[in-house]
Amino acid sequence: MNKIAFIIYYHKQNFYSLNAIAGALETDEVFDSIDFYFARSQDKLLMGLEEAIKTYKKIVLGISFSTIQLFETYDLVQKLKNLFPEKCLIVAGGSHPTGDPFGTLRMGFDIVIVGEGEGTIVDIMQKIANNENYSMVKGIAYINDVTEYKFTGKRDLINLDEYPPFPVKNTRFGAIEITRGCPYVCYFCQTPYILGTSPRHRSIESICKYVQVLATHYGDNTDIRFITPNAFSYGSKDGKNLDLKKLEDLLINIREIIGKNARIFLGTFPSEVRPEHVSNDTLDLVLKYANNDNITIGAQSGSQSILDSCHRGHSVEDIYNAVDLTLKNDLKINIDFIFGLPGENEEDIKLTIGMMKELSNKGARVHAHSFIPLPQTPFAMASVTRIKDIYKREIKSLISKGSAFGEWKKQERLAIKIAEYLKTKKLK
Question: Which helix (H) or strand (E) holds 79?
Answer without folding.
Answer: helix 70-83
